[in-house]
Specification:
Blueprint: H1 14-50, H2 52-65, E1 71-72, E2 75-79, E3 86-96, E4 108-118, E5 131-143, H3 159-163, E6 173-185, E7 190-202, E8 209-225, E9 228-230, E10 234-245, E11 250-260, E12 263-272, E13 279-286, H4 291-295, H5 300-306, E14 310-324, E15 332-345, E16 353-363, E17 374-384, E18 387-396, E19 402-412, H6 413-416, E20 425-442, H7 443-447, E21 456-470, E22 473-478, E23 480-485, E24 488-498, E25 501-510, H8 512-517, E26 528-540, H9 541-548, E27 572-585, E28 588-600, E29 603-612, E30 615-624, E31 630-641, H10 642-648, E32 662-675, E33 688-701, H11 715-719, E34 720-733, E35 736-746, E36 750-758, E37 762-770, H12 771-779, E38 798-806, E39 810-814, H13 816-841, H14 850-856
Parallel strand pairs: 5-6, 26-27
Antiparallel strand pairs: 1-3, 2-3, 3-4, 4-5, 6-7, 7-8, 8-9, 8-10, 10-11, 11-12, 12-13, 13-14, 14-15, 15-16, 16-17, 17-18, 18-19, 19-20, 20-21, 21-22, 21-23, 22-24, 23-24, 24-25, 25-26, 27-28, 28-29, 29-30, 30-31, 31-32, 32-33, 33-34, 34-35, 35-36, 36-37, 37-38, 38-39
């Protein structure tokens, strides 16, 4: 009998069968999903390809239906790859006008404008546009004098709009890339231009009330407020949340993070548009930054002076702007800056100003105008090279500023000299010690010569081994002080050494402040008036002229060449009574100069006496320091060594008769009229000179030109001609020396001569010789004692010659008529020259001696003070 168990058949596992059914179902789902996805992609591409033109037409038409203005486009494309499953509808070369016509550009011009839309929403009648992207273009926002903007281009939505199947332009996000934004607000007199590098804006722009969130970076071209320019060329980063209520015309900062060139600001408050003018309630604070944070907010014309200044330390900035801006009223503006334990750096400082503390406050006052505004810097303390400086400054009425300044401390010259903006000033050392300097008065009075007396000034400035290199010439100012009392400065024992010169000054100066405030053209005719004594051991005029010529204007304008004119000479009006032990200019040297040096209206006048070239010389001249300088001078000289005279005068630029050819003592009266070009170069063709000249007991040695007369004179005599007296009256004009007829009595021969000699060495001489003396010279031996020949001008046996050509190539001819004719006309020339000289010098005698001239001149009363210093000459 079989067991019952054997009749039971095995059953199929229930779990295994269930897994197979599930797997089959999932595979089916996946296949259908993939299929539908592929169909969707294929359908979307088909839609984009087949219906692109129709979609473009519909989009443009429906967008224009919801705009108050018109959108025009050049081309259109649909892109599926940028935001699948959404589609990007891209327009090229777009232009959109504002809500009213004005003389500005259209509201929007862009090379690319794209909208993001649902992919299959394109087949529906109700299409929702959620975002817009604008690239490479410009946005011109304009608000007229009534505060009405040109950007309210969307038609208001109604209830029927919400329930219809119309196209809906419901933008919630906008992205701008490389867009120039021009903002003009006529009601608030604000104009701005900013280039957006990349920025996002989100919000329900079609709603009347929404929160605008904006984040991005940009570059500010400018911000003009009431003809004042701010933040030009600054980098901007912003992260803002702004509540906008279009019904109330109110803009409220929920969050206002703004960075201007790495200086961080936080903005809170609101702005409300009102028909009478914007209403502001804004506060700007900064706890991170430096003084550049403040200077960033200054108008453009002031920024350059502070643009390179930076600071470290505990820095606080607080700015409030509250009230309504109308044509007649401005909001209340208050600002405060605090710096503690700071350090201020600038390229103008050789070393930083350390351990600085200050508090600065600005308030536009009760009437909220420039006239009622006050700027105050209090408790300013800082250390230059461990030397303390303190300052208090108050400026009231910025419309017509009144300045109240107090300064006390030691200022290292190397830390402040760069503020003079002179590239030719370098290597500063030493200090200016300022004691109780106080300046109080109106700025306009400080600029005015007639009103400077209203300004109160007091204090003292001492020089402590102060040195400065000017045009590569080192100068030291030491052992002296300046006492300031209102418009006068008393100079006491100021010693200056430099440019191979050293001098001690004392005297009184006026109008220093108007000169310091003068503009580059000196439009107010400021003059530094002074009366001073100058006592010097050495004075090198050419080095001093080189050191102080060509000072630059502090203005930004490029000035044309002004010859020898300098910024210094143009402001000087006064006299130095001078005593100089040794003075020289180029090769000209002298000693024991006593006289005066006067400056007036760009004219330097020199009047004095000096010992020079073994004789005595009296000088009186005017040097006009203009664009094309000129020199008008008178010289009276006695017992001058003619050899030294020609040598120190560099042979007057010629090589025919030079210093080595001459000996003797010279007396002369001379009028010089010399001209120079814009670069200070001497103009030979414009030189005009009248001179009366006498040389006694003179010699002409080895004069090459006289070898022509070896036919008539012994050659030994020609090598060394001694004459008792040479006297004549000369004129130099148009590059030519005119020599009237004169008689020369010498050991070699007696002759009468006249003619001309040009600067390029062309000659035209007329000579008369006594024939008897010529024959005698050939027959008899030369006189070894070199006694002068007898005067035989009245004899009848004379020879007449003309010498024409150049000094190297000339022709000698006998021509009695030509010589006698020229002798006759040249006598008129001599009388004319003498008359001109007598008109200037009065009656004079070339034969008068040195002692007589000294006795007749008025004495110059100058106390000769020894010039000593602890410093060696530079």
């Amino acid at each position: 009998m079989e067991s019952p168990i054997s009749d039971i058949k095995p059953q199929t596992p229930i779990v295994e069968n269930s897994e197979k059914n599930t797997s089959s179902w999932l595979n089916t789902i996946a296949k259908w999903t993939l299929g539908m996805f592929l169909i969707s992609i294929l359908a979307s591409f088909t839609i984009a390809y087949v219906f692109e033109d129709k979609i473009k037409a519909r989009l443009v038409e429906e967008i224009n239906n919801q705009l108050k203005t018109e959108l025009t486009v050049e081309s259109f494309s649909l892109s599926l790859l940028k935001g699948f499953p959404n589609v990007s509808a891209e327009f090229s070369q777009v232009m959109l006008n504002g809500t009213f016509n004005n003389d500005t550009a259209p509201l929007l011009e862009a090379s690319n404008l794209s909208f993001t839309l649902p992919l299959f929403g394109l087949l529906k009648s109700n299409v929702q546009v959620k975002s817009v992207y604008i690239k490479d273009g410009s946005l011109s926002v304009y608000m007229n004098s009534k505060g009405v903007p040109n950007y309210k281009i969307l038609k208001p939505m109604t209830k029927s709009d919400d329930s219809s199947d119309d196209f809906q332009l419901n933008i919630e996000q906008a992205t701008l890339e490389n867009i120039d934004i021009m903002y003009i607000n006529k009601s608030s007199d604000i104009t701005s231009r900013i280039r957006i590098d990349n920025a996002s804006f989100s919000g329900n722009f079609s709603a009347d009330k929404y929160a605008l969130e904006s984040k991005g970076n940009a570059e500010s071209h400018f911000l003009d407020i009431s003809n004042k320019r701010f933040i030009p060329g600054n980098q901007l980063d912003f992260d803002l949340i702004l509540d906008i209520d279009m019904n109330q015309n109110m803009y409220t900062f929920q969050q206002g993070k703004l960075t201007i060139d790495d200086n961080h600001f936080n903005i809170i408050g609101d702005v409300t548009a009102d028909p009478k003018g914007y209403i502001y309630d804004l506060t700007v604070k900064s706890k991170e930054g430096n003084l550049a944070t403040v200077f960033t907010l200054l108008p453009e014309e002031y920024i350059e002076s502070f643009s390179d200044i930076t600071s470290t330390g505990k820095f606080l900035f607080d700015f409030t702007y509250k009230g309504q801006k109308t044509d007649k009223e401005s909001p209340q503006l208050r600002a405060q800056v605090k710096l503690r334990k700071g350090e201020i750096k600038s390229p103008h400082f050789e070393s930083p100003l350390k351990n600085v503390s200050l508090t600065a406050n600005f308030d536009n006052g009760k009437y909220k105008t420039l006239k009622s505004s006050v700027l105050k810097i209090s408790d300013f303390k800082g250390y230059f090279n461990e030397k303390l400086s303190q300052m208090e400054l108050k400026i009231s009425n910025l419309e017509d500023p009144t300045i109240d300044l107090e300064v006390d401390g030691t200022l290292p010259l190397k830390s402040i000299y760069k503020f003079f903006h002179q590239e030719n000033m370098t290597n500063a050392n030493g200090s200016l010690v300022v004691k109780d300097l106080k300046v109080k008065g109106k700025q306009n009075d400080m600029r005015s010569m007639s009103r400077i007396s209203k300004v109160d000034v007091s204090g003292e400035i001492k020089f402590d081994k102060a040195s400065l290199t000017i045009n590569e010439y080192p100068f030291v100012a030491d052992k002296g002080s300046l006492l300031l009392k209102n418009n006068k400065i008393l100079v006491k024992g100021l010693y200056i050494n430099g440019a191979d010169s050293d001098a001690r000054f004392s005297g009184t100066f006026k109008n220093l402040i108007p000169v310091m405030f003068a503009d580059s053209t000196n439009s107010k005719n400021a003059e530094l008036q002074f009366s001073s004594k100058l006592n010097a051991k050495n004075l090198d005029l050419d080095q001093l002229a080189d050191a102080f010529s060509g000072f630059q204007s502090t203005s930004n304008e490029i000035e044309e060449n002004k010859g020898w004119h300098s910024k210094i000479s143009g402001f000087l009006d006064g006299t130095f009574d001078a005593y100089v032990e040794n003075i020289h200019y180029n090769d000209l040297t002298g000693s024991e100069f006593e006289g005066s040096i006067n400056f007036e209206d760009d004219v330097l006048t020199l009047d004095g006496d000096l010992e020079t070239m073994d004789g005595f010389m009296s000088l009186e001249g005017e040097l006009f320091l203009t664009k094309t300088p000129k020199l008008i001078g008178e010289i009276e000289a006695k017992q001058i060594d003619v050899h030294k005279f020609f040598k120190q005068a560099q042979n007057f630029g010629q090589e025919t008769i030079v210093a080595r050819n001459l000996k003797g003592k010279m007396n002369t009266n001379m009028i010089i009229n010399a001209h120079f070009d814009e670069n200070g170069a001497f103009l030979e063709d414009k030189l005009h000179v009248y001179a009366g000249l006498e040389i006694r007991n003179g010699e002409l040695n080895n004069l090459e030109m006289l070898k022509t007369f070896s036919t008539y004179i012994h050659s030994d005599d020609l090598e060394n001609i001694e004459f008792t007296k040479l006297e004549n009256w000369f004129e130099i004009k148009n590059g030519k020396i005119h020599i009237p007829v004169m008689f020369i009595q010498s050991n070699a021969i007696n002759l009468t001569v006249s003619g001309t000699h040009t600067f390029d060495h062309r000659i035209n001489y007329n000579i008369k010789l006594n024939a008897v003396q010529v024959v005698a010279n050939r027959i008899f031996k030369n006189d070894k004692d070199r006694r002068p020949q007898k005067d035989k001008r009245g004899g009848v046996a004379n020879l007449h010659y003309t010498v024409k050509g150049t000094v190297e190539d000339y022709v000698v001819k006998r021509n009695k008529d030509a010589v006698q004719k020229h002798f006759k006309t040249s006598k008129y020339k001599k009388d004319k020259i003498r008359k001109v000289l007598e008109d200037s010098f009065g009656d004079f005698d070339l034969n008068s001696d040195y002692a007589t001239i000294v006795k007749e001149r008025k004495p110059v009363i100058i106390k000769k003070e020894p010039v000593k210093s602890a410093h060696k000459p530079i």
